[in-house]
Amino acid sequence: MVSAIILVSNATPDTILQFHDQLSNELPVLKGNWNFSFKIFRNNPYSIPPEKALELSQSDESKYLHTWSPSYLPGTGVALINKSSSCVFSQVIAEEAGNENVEFTIPDAHLHQGATTGLNDPFDYFVAQKLQSMWTQRQTVKGDGGEIYELENERVIIRTSNVFLHGVFKGLLIQIEIPSIATADPTVFDPVIQRYRIPHGRLCAEVLDPNLLDKYGDLCLQLAETLNF
């Protein structure tokens, strides 16, 4: 699967309404609403590795941790470290999920053998509360009022959301997913943008590794590049 994020920063109510009308005219399968939380952490400059404690009073480099929690992945958070590596954290236990369609869970065997963090709190909350000596939260970006459209027999998925920073509207976010393509090529989105008359905005289709696509890690990277206010 390949994905791209577009942020229409100059979106108006008319722009948003027209785009939703355009998608509705294509007779999509509506998959409901969604929202997300996107948090940006920066390394604590005074957190010095022991081997450098005698040389430095504060760190000489900046590192960033981004966390993304979309509502369509319940109990799950995606973490991106310094825009180079990613991981997915779930707080849902497999035996408690039952027959629910949950993509990520903690396997029962891991739980029984203690091979899990055992966290009941979301990962971003854990970072903010327990790792304050390492990471300092800088921003929280919220996505609200989102809609999910499946088009062309699930060959194209478009998610929209209104983006807010500290309660201030920052634009319309459009998330495009093409499940059938596994090549990191930004031009594959051109036909989709033209066909569905997607408003012009800042587009990011970067990936962590072109040779090994990471569905959620790549999305988190694209959000980190796009929601850089």
Describe the structure.
It contains 6 helices and 9 strands, in the order βαββββαααβββαβα. The chain has one domain: Hypothetical Protein Pfu-838710-001 (Beta Barrel). Helix content is 21%, strand content 36%. The protein has a 9-stranded antiparallel beta sheet with strand order 5-4-3-2-6-7-8-1-9, with helices on both faces. The mean pLDDT is 89. The chain is an alpha+beta fold and 229 residues long.
Write the layout of secondary structure elements.
Blueprint: E1 2-8, H1 13-25, E2 29-43, E3 64-70, E4 76-81, E5 85-90, H2 94-97, H3 108-112, H4 123-130, E6 135-151, E7 156-165, E8 168-178, H5 190-195, E9 202-204, H6 215-226
Antiparallel strand pairs: 1-8, 1-9, 2-3, 2-6, 3-4, 4-5, 6-7, 7-8
List keywords for this structure.
229 residues, alpha+beta, Hypothetical Protein Pfu-838710-001, nine-stranded antiparallel sheet, 6 helices, 9 strands
Short description:
With 229 residues, this protein is α+β, with helices and mostly antiparallel strands. The protein contains six helices and nine strands.
| Rg, Cα atoms, Å | 19 Å
* Major sheet size, sense and barrel closure: 9 strands, antiparallel
- Count up the domains: 1
Please work out how many helical segments DSSP would assign: 6
Shape annotation = globular
Oligomeric state of the chains present here = single chain
- Tell me the total number of β-strands: 9
Say what the CATH topology is: Hypothetical Protein Pfu-838710-001
Question: What's the N-to-C terminus distance?
Answer: 27 Å
Order of helices and strands: EHEEEEHHHEEEHEH
Mean pLDDT: 89
- Structural class, judged by helices and strands? alpha+beta
Gross CATH architecture:
Beta Barrel
Q: Order of strands in the sheet with the most strands? A: 5-4-3-2-6-7-8-1-9
What fraction of the residues are assigned to beta strands by DSSP? 35-45%
